[in-house]
């Protein structure tokens, strides 16, 4: 039940609920130019590249969290509980996941990476906890060294393709791609992230609520301030 509550809190918000969340005022309300206009004015994004921008994927596919209510569904249908070994494996994975989060919060990214990796090995690859553990592993991998940053981007790309609708994955990929000079992909992923969770545009909120390390946080700060 604790895992269910934790993951349900992390679940993507619908457009209706996202509008009620405290968020940074959109640019239109502040009467400032659109982000792409600023990119063009600053010379960061050439006009010909803007014309090649892919249309942002419509963020209408929510994270599949059906597995979170599997126990209640089994009870309704009168199906037996899974084998004890499966339950024990899930509990072990949950403990490893919490340990990984704690290590990431403390700044021990190599050990956090290992704990996320162990979590993935102890649970079904299709489960919700595996999805979040893969995301955590990619985010902590970004903190290890320059070579690992490239691998982290590949992992984040996999997650946003496989599970459209995890706003943190889209926001993290956007920041990482911006730092890697992949401007067009960074902007496209940011549009999807903003449709789900506008609070990622608030750097203070990210620092308080997410387990991002200094490298990825710095990349997000550069993205938000249009620095290259």
What does this structure look like?
The protein is mostly helical and 228 residues long. It contains 13 helices and no strands. The chain is globular and about 50 Å long.
Mean pLDDT: 76
Please give the count of helices.
13
Number of strands: 0
Overall shape: it is: globular
Strand content: under 5%
The share of residues in helices is: 55-70%
Low-confidence stretches: 10-32, 47-69
Cα distance, first to last residue?
A: 44 Å
The helix-strand sequence is HHHHHHHHHHHHH
Which structural class matches the secondary elements? mainly alpha
Rounded radius of gyration (Å)? 19 Å
Q: Profile the largest sheet.
A: none
Question: Topology, pairings included?
Answer:
Layout: H1 2-10, H2 15-20, H3 35-42, H4 47-51, H5 70-77, H6 84-106, H7 109-121, H8 128-141, H9 146-162, H10 167-179, H11 183-196, H12 203-209, H13 214-224
Q: Nutshell version of this structure?
A:
With 228 residues, the protein is mostly helical. It has helices at 2-10, 15-20, 35-42, 47-51, 70-77, 84-106, 109-121, 128-141, 146-162, 167-179, 183-196, 203-209, 214-224. The chain starts with a helix and ends with a helix.
């Amino acid at each position: 039940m604790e895992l269910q509550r934790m993951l349900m809190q992390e679940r993507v918000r619908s457009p209706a609920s996202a509008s009620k969340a405290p968020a940074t005022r959109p640019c239109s309300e502040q009467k400032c130019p659109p982000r792409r206009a600023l990119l063009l004015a600053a010379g960061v994004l050439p006009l010909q590249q803007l014309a090649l921008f892919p249309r942002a994927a419509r963020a209408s596919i929510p994270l599949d969290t059906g597995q979170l209510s599997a126990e209640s569904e089994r009870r309704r249908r009168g199906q037996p509980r899974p084998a004890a070994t499966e339950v024990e494996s899930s509990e072990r994975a949950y403990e490893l996941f919490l340990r990984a989060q704690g290590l990431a919060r403390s700044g021990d990214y190599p050990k956090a990476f290992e704990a996320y990796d162990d979590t993935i090995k102890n649970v079904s690859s299709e489960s919700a906890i595996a999805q979040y553990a893969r995301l955590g592993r990619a985010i902590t991998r970004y903190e290890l060294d320059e070579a690992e940053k490239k691998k982290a981007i590949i992992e984040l790309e996999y997650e946003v393709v496989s599970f459209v609708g995890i706003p943190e994955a889209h926001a993290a990929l956007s920041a990482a791609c911006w730092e890697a000079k992949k401007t067009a992909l960074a902007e496209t992923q940011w549009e999807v992230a903003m449709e789900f969770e506008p609070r990622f545009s608030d750097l203070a909120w990210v620092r308080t609520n997410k387990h991002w390390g200094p490298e990825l946080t710095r990349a997000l700060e550069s993205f938000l301030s249009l620095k290259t």
